Amino acid sequence: MEPPSKPGSNQVADVVFVIEGTANLGPYFESLRKNYILPAIEYFNGGPPAETDFGGDYGGTQYGLVVFNTVDCAPESYVQCHAPTSSAYEFVSWIDSIQFMGGGAESCSLIAEGLSVALQLFDDFKKMREQIGQTHKVCVLLCNSPPYLLPAVESVSYTGCTAESLRGIHFSVVAPRKLPALRSLFERASPLNGAVEPLPDYSQDPFHMVLIRGISLPGEKLHRGRPLCPYRCFMTGAPPQFVDREAVRKSLLHPKGSQFDSFG
Q1: What are the backbone dihedrals phi and psi of residue 159, each rounded to the nearest 5 degrees, phi first?
Q2: Nearest CA among 44, 9, 16 for reference residue 217
Q3: 142 in Cβ contact with 17 (< 8 Å)
Q4: In this protein, which residues make up the domain named VWFA (predicted)?
């Protein structure tokens, strides 16, 4: 996959949101929608979505939506995918129609299934965009569960792919809580050239995990690094210790053969 393009004021973007459609995310979704989803869509749309918005197949932003579930949704499909649209207004209506049902008895979700379908969507975008060449590719994962210990099975083209398949795409993760498995997935899907820039802090809630690439959101905070033990250091007066991010990343990797390993 080609290197990621850099965003600009006149960028042509392909945007895919991959959203967990279970009851595990439902109670938190309105907060994520207000603070991150709608601002991201406004960023690519150039303003709030309107019913008259239409960018065409070639010159404007194209949006795709993938909704993934848990294994308890069988015999229904694990993943639902909406065809691409250039209307930000229509895209928001799709997101607002997600039911967030099931999954209450499950602690994991089918993240690999959702991401493999997203990769197929980017292939479709590429065919549509042949006349204009490279585009700014963005994939945003929104979920509240770690992945199952299962490989993806519904994608023909991307079965068994790894996180490296996401390189060339600006990959972001938004979750209502901090899940080590999702952070590790985000870090392993780092840019193709290996250059990792400091991440802006867009979180609007201290419990949220907001890892963003390729999108500019309002409310950015100055983020120089976080203490490893801020509360204990505050109580004892000891100097703060800062995280060795590489050591933490390695310690969070899942065992081989898991669904996370397929997309991690």
Answers
A1: -65, 130
A2: 44
A3: yes
A4: 14-175
For 34-52, the pLDDT digits (tens) are: 999 999 999 999 899 988 7
Q: Can you list the positions of beta strands (E) in the chain? A: 13-20, 62-68, 79-85, 136-142, 170-175, 209-211
Full-model pTM: 0.78
What are 67-102's pLDDT values in tens digits? 998 877 776 788 999 989 999 999 999 999 999 988
Boundaries of every domain in the chain? 13-262
Could you give the CA distance from residue 155 to residue 125 in angstroms, rounded to a whole number? 17
Q: From 252, 191, 231, select the one nearest 4 (Cα to Cα).
A: 191
**Residue 59: CB partners within 8 Å, gap ≥ 6?**
12, 132
What separation in angstroms does the CA of 122 have from each of 45, 92, 150, 169? 19, 19, 23, 9
Q: Are 122 and 16 in contact (CB under 8 A)?
A: yes
Contact in structure between 181 and 146 (CB atoms under 8 Å): yes
Whether the CB-CB separation of 136 and 169 falls below 8 Å is answered with no
CATH architecture type of domain 13-262: 3-Layer(aba) Sandwich (3.40)
For 27, the token pair is 């109670």
Selection from 69, 194, 207, 90 nearest residue 143 by Cα: 69
d(CA 28, CA 65): 19
